[in-house]
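User
Please review the sequence:
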Amino acid sequence: MTANPPQDQDEYREASIVAIRQATEILDRDRDLALLLLREAPTVDSELEDKVSSVYSALVTIARSFLDRAIKEGFARPCNTELVSEAIVGIGAWMANAWWAGRLPDFSKDQVIEQLVDFAFFGIGSANNS
């Protein structure tokens, strides 16, 4: 998305789905390691906790930069991008944990990704609200 920034909300949504799919393809190659890092890494020692924290911070920074741009371009509502970016990354991590742990057996990976992206873009408001 950095090389070819989305020009509207639809492009932004689709680029988000593609980026998340690509990341999950990489992480799916070693699901056990991904689960270990999500669940246990912060408890191993402070050095590993700091490394995991820096990964989350980097993801929040990326999410915030795209959210700031979307707001500036007028295809996202104004919000506190620091808080919302933290929430987006936290929800993503929680749902990744649920997916890899097998707690979402009735849903495909694509369904999970698309529903989470739609939640990030549209919230839980009425379909009649714009």
Remarks:
- The mean pLDDT is 88.
- Residues 9-121 form a domain with the Tetracycline Repressor; domain 2 fold (CATH 1.10.357).
